[in-house]
């Protein structure tokens, strides 16, 4: 596994205008020394060809792998015309990911509108409409050679548990649809993490409250890193910080904590292999 960084960890700095994508990449390369980055599409100032090419070139110059691009879509919208707009958003993001050389686009299944007030039949229809949109998105992904990594998400979303994720992947049956496993978003926590790790092509290490020692208790990170190591997970684990403390001070502590856990897991594994 390799550690990476989500630009969303610094979303307040982007939103306030204190930081742009190039300053953030400099921090990732020079200060944090991560190997990979995940870019939220709205943190790029433009999707014009020249701008996207510049982002790609600067990342290469800094020896940063653009592991994934992120887009926020919602296939749970009530109106068909709104879901069509979401598909158009996905297509534009797939094109941008391909231009960046990012092999993965993180997407959402969405949040079904009015779900609590719906009948069982209406809820099934909402799932089927989301599935239809996912299938179309998969065809677009195939066209451009970009893997869609759908994120598990609670807060009333379609994918709240590992069973929900496995149902979607089975129903969609697409080679271009996989999982962005967010460690803090399952309603049943580690049970679903273990159940769906095999489908993950990218992982979000969700952090909310990083203490002075770098520990965050959103997830049992010692157990998670041990599981990833034993499972030979070889993708990126990107930190997604969403706490109240300033990112510039909190994120480095959380990153060093995960680095220490990865190092310890590797050393333990090597010791077990020794004759």
Can you describe this structure in just a few lines?
The chain is of the alpha/beta class. The chain is built from 9 helices and 8 strands.
Could you please describe the fold and organization of this structure?
By secondary structure, the chain is α/β, with parallel strands linked by helices. It has helices spanning 11-16, 21-32, 49-61, 80-100, 120-144, 162-172, 190-196, 221-230, 247-273, and strands at residues 2-6, 36-40, 65-70, 104-108, 147-151, 177-182, 200-207, 236-241. Helix 4 links the parallel strand 3 and strand 4. Helix 4 (80-100) runs parallel beside helix 5 and helix 8 packs across helix 9 (247-273). The protein starts with a strand and ends with a helix.
- What is the percent of helical residues? 40-55%
Order of strands in the sheet with most strands: 1-2-3-4-5-6-7-8
Q: Compute the number of strand runs.
A: 8
**Major sheet size, sense and barrel closure:** 8 strands, parallel, barrel
Question: What are the secondary-structure elements, in order, as H or E?
Answer: EHHEHEHEHEHEHEHEH
Compute the average pLDDT. 94
User: How big is the Rg?
Assistant: 19 Å
Q: Structural class, from helix and strand content? A: alpha/beta
Taken as a percent bin, the fraction of beta residues is 15-25%
Cα-to-Cα separation, first versus last residue: 24 Å
What would the principal axes of the Cα set say about the shape? globular
- Summed up, the helix count is 9
Question: Which stretches are low in confidence, meaning pLDDT under 50 for 5 or more residues running?
Answer: none
């Amino acid at each position: 596994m390799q550690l990476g960084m989500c630009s969303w960890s610094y979303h307040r700095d982007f939103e306030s205008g204190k930081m742009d994508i190039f300053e953030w990449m400099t921090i990732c390369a020079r200060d944090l020394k991560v190997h990979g980055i995940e870019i939220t599409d709205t943190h790029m100032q433009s999707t014009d060809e020249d701008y996207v090419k510049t982002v790609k070139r600067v990342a290469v110059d800094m020896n940063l792998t653009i592991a994934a691009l992120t887009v926020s879509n919602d296939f749970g919208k009530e109106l068909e015309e709104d879901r069509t707009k979401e598909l158009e958003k996905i297509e534009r993001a797939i094109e941008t990911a391909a231009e960046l050389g990012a092999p993965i686009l993180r997407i959402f299944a969405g949040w079904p509108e009015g779900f609590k007030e719906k009948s069982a039949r209406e809820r099934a229809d909402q799932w089927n409409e989301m599935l239809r949109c996912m299938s179309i998105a998969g065809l677009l992904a195939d066209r451009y050679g970009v893997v869609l990594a759908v994120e598990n998400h609670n807060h009333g979303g379609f994918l709240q548990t590992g069973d929900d994720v496995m149902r979607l992947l089975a129903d969609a049956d697409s080679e271009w649809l996989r999982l962005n496993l967010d460690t803090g978003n399952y309603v049943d926590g580690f049970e679903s993490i273990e159940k769906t790790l095999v489908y993950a092509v990218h992982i979000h290490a969700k952090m909310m409250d990083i203490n002075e020692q770098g520990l965050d208790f959103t997830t049992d990170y010692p157990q998670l890193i041990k599981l990833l190591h034993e499972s030979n997970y070889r993708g990126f684990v990107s930190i997604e910080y969403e706490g109240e403390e300033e990112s510039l001070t909190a994120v480095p502590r959380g990153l060093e904590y995960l680095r220490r856990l990865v190092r310890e897991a590797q050393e333990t594994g090597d010791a077990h292999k020794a004759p």
